[in-house]
Design goal:
Layout lengths: L4 H7 L8 H11 L3 H6 L7 H18 L15 H6 L4 H19 L6 H15 L3 H6 L1 H5 L3 E4 L6 H10 L12 E5 L5 H9 L16 H4 L3 E6 L6 H13 L1 E2 L8 E2 L2 E7 L3 H6 L5 H7 L2 E4 L10 H12 L6 H11 L2 H5 L5 H13 L24 H4 L5 H15 L4 H8 L3 H12 L1
Parallel strand pairs: 1-6, 1-7, 2-3, 3-6
Antiparallel strand pairs: 4-5
Helix pairs in contact: 1-2, 1-4, 4-6, 6-7, 6-10, 16-17, 16-19, 22-23
Length: 435
């Protein structure tokens, strides 16, 4: 049996970059025929297709039953004849498809269907697997050495993206998750950060009653997440850079070094570029961490996600059928002007606080920050509120009138010709906007 190339290429590609209908069609085309499909690819001249077939079938199995590693690429899925024809051991394929299934589940659990969130999922997957799972196999060491920097305001969900990347790090035996650890640099006293990162030996300092490996060594052959990296002291930045570049960490109080193979994921709400320019953050460390830069959008830039995030929060805390009046009132507020136009400086965390207030019968308590204006974001032709169909007709009209007036340099007659109305109408509407 000759494998159809399109389904294979689709099923090993970035699932967040493929049209959902095409992806489902590719899944259906494999169906229960995966065993015969693989057997039909045993021609040595089609080794790449054979790898794609193994990855596609394994990934489908892993997504369907991610908790059952034994069923993925098992003897019934990967016949002995197929396994002997593959250029890599079964464990290599198993590690990749299990990591892909975990990463995809983690990204699917991040709420929001706006274009900004779709882009975020696509970029995060690509940082873990490249263009496809075939690339992940061939470029495994490149990916391991390619660190990730996650940027975004407080409360935008940087930790969730870091978790997805850690889930997407291929693990060890039977596709088990890779080792991982994490540290929030802002939550640890500056005097203890280096001990937490690099470990220490017994007696290295007052209170060091026993030796500790440190967070980086705990993530050996896996992924280490360093949150709030912008809070590191300059001396710690120097030591961290050396560890990253040499793949060797020395505990405090010890002259012995320990080899480590770690992928680093760092996050911060601070403007690291500005900190570099001001000399408060090392440029070489910034460049080393910024292999892939993933920027999380603020909630005010994706108002279309407010209802999805809000109703998921309500469903988590309010059982179906319980307090229907409260649920209806909360849902109505989520879809109203106040929630849509608010700037949400605290992002998702602030939205959750407002919803807690509403569920308890209190005011949402969000009136102090300025409302979102219809401003165009860099690289986009329309403001987010217009693009996501969340702006009122008056807001759209005023925004467009300002845009035409600006382009025509305030010429009322020319503006009227563009808008298809008389000059008196333009003058009246312009005066109304100024009042």
């Amino acid at each position: 049996m000759v494998a159809p190339p399109a389904p294979l290429s689709v099923l090993v590609a970035n699932p967040f970059a493929v049209d959902p209908v095409t992806l489902q069609t590719a899944r259906d085309s494999l169906g229960e025929q995966h065993g015969r499909l693989l057997e039909g690819l045993l021609d040595p001249g089609r080794r790449q297709d054979l790898e794609r077939g193994v990855l596609a079938v394994g990934h489908l199995q892993a997504c369907a039953s991610p908790g059952s590693a034994s069923a993925v690429l098992g003897s019934d899925v990967l016949p002995r004849a197929v396994e002997s024809a593959l250029p890599r051991p079964r464990a290599a394929y198993l590690a990749v498809v299990m990591a892909a299934a975990r990463c995809r589940a983690a990204l699917d659990s991040i709420l929001g269907g706006s274009p900004a969130m779709q882009r975020l999922r696509r970029e995060t997957w690509a940082a873990c697997f490249g263009d496809s799972l075939v690339h992940a196999l061939n470029l495994a060491q490149v990916i391991q050495d390619h660190d990730v920097l996650i940027l975004g305001e407080t409360g935008t969900g940087k930790e969730g993206i870091a978790h997805a990347i850690q889930e997407g790090t291929p693990g060890g035996k039977d596709g088990a998750p890779a080792s991982r650890s994490a540290l929030n640099a802002a939550a640890v006293p500056a005097t203890l950060v280096e001990s937490e990162l690099f470990g220490h030996v017994k007696g290295a300092f007052t209170g060091a009653s026993e030796s500790r490996a440190g967070r980086i060594r705990s993530a050996d052959h896996g992924c280490f997440f360093l949150d709030e990296v912008g809070d590191l002291e300059p001396t710690t930045q120097v030591k961290l850079l050396r560890v990253i570049e040499t793949d060797e960490v020395s505990p405090l109080g010890s002259d012995a070094g320990h080899e480590v193979q770690v992928r680093y994921v760092a996050a911060t709400h601070k403007d690291l570029s500005a900190m570099v320019a001001e000399g408060r953050f090392r440029q070489d460390l910034y460049q080393r961490l910024a292999g892939s830069v993933i920027r999380l959008p603020a909630l005010r830039d994706r108002p279309a996600d407010i209802i999805d995030i809000g109703m998921a929060f309500v469903a988590r805390h309010l059982a179906e059928g319980a307090l229907p009046v409260t649920r209806e009132r909360t849902e109505r507020w989520l879809g109203g002007t106040e929630a849509r136009r608010y700037a949400w400086p605290g992002n998702v965390r602030e939205l959750q606080n407002a919803l807690r207030n509403l569920l308890l019968g209190l005011e949402p308590g969000i009136g102090e920050a300025p409302a979102v204006d219809l401003v165009e974001t860099e690289g986009e032709a329309l403001p987010a509120l217009v693009r996501d169909a969340r702006a009122s007709l008056k807001e759209v009209e005023d925004w467009y009138l300002r845009r035409v007036l600006a382009r025509e340099e305030g010429n009322l007659a020319q503006t009227a010709r563009v808008l298809g109305v008389d000059r008196t109408t333009v003058r009246r509407k312009a005066r109304r906007m100024e009042d």
